[in-house]
Each structure stands twice: as structure tokens, then as C-alpha cells.
Design a protein that fits this description.
The protein has one domain: Jelly Rolls (Sandwich). It is mainly β. The relative contact order is 0.27. A hairpin with a 2-residue loop joins strand 1 and strand 2. Strands 1, 2, 3, 4, 5, 6, 7 and 8 form an 8-stranded antiparallel beta sheet that branches. The protein is globular. It is 0% helix and 59% strand.
Length: 111
């Protein structure tokens, strides 16, 4: 779907990426990528880092996030900034959806 002008939700293939976590890669170009992650209660986004800037928008649910060793609880409407190489992860406290924007795109998500 690289550079697709219109990406319809039903065409975005769900991928189980961890127990209780489903990813859908939405619209993207080489410069920016939009990804939806749906979490079941108790699911974990393991601590990790990558060479991309990432903004996460909490669409729904409640999550305990750790960014660079600092933990905070976030809920619908909150946003988080994770700059290049910063370690981060989360635990889903209440089932929900996260919308991630990456710059540049995550080639590992579509390879």
C-alpha cells in the first residue's frame, strides 16, 4: 500500500504481533506511516527501540506506558512522543486501540 492515496480499513490486513495485539498498517509513504494497534486487556507491547520518531495517539482504552524509564498511565485522547532510539513499551490496562505515526516508515512492518 506504499503511496496508496486511499486505504480502506477492510483492505488493511490484520497481523497478530503479540499475544492480544493486532496490527493494521494503514496509509504510508517512505516518509511517514500510520499504524493501528488493537490491544486486549493485559496484552504487552514489550520494551523496544527503533530508529524512527513515533507519535502514539490513544484512541480508546487505558495503557501503562514506559518511555526512557519513566512510567505513566494514559487514556483516550492522550498522545506520546518517542524519539529515535528511545526505549519504550506498554501494558494494556483496559482494552483499547493505539494509533501510531512513524517517521520515516517502518519497512520491517511491510517486508
Amino acid at each position: 500500500m506504499l503511496n496508496e492515496r486511499w486505504v480502506f480499513y477492510e483492505d488493511a490486513q490484520p497481523q497478530t504481533v503479540a499475544e492480544g495485539v493486532v496490527r493494521r498498517v494503514l496509509a504510508y509513504s517512505k516518509d511517514v506511516m500510520c499504524v493501528e494497534n488493537t490491544f486486549q486487556k493485559g496484552a504487552v507491547g514489550s520494551l523496544h527501540h527503533h530508529p524512527h520518531t513515533q507519535i502514539t495517539y490513544v484512541v480508546s482504552g487505558v495503557f501503562e506506558f514506559e518511555i526512557d524509564g519513566e512510567k505513566k498511565t494514559v487514556k483516550a485522547g492522550d498522545t506520546l512522543l518517542k524519539t529515535d532510539g528511545v526505549e519504550h513499551g506498554c501494558v494494556c490496562v483496559e482494552a483499547g486501540v493505539l494509533l501510531d505515526i512513524f517517521s520515516p516508515m517502518r519497512e520491517d512492518f511491510v517486508g
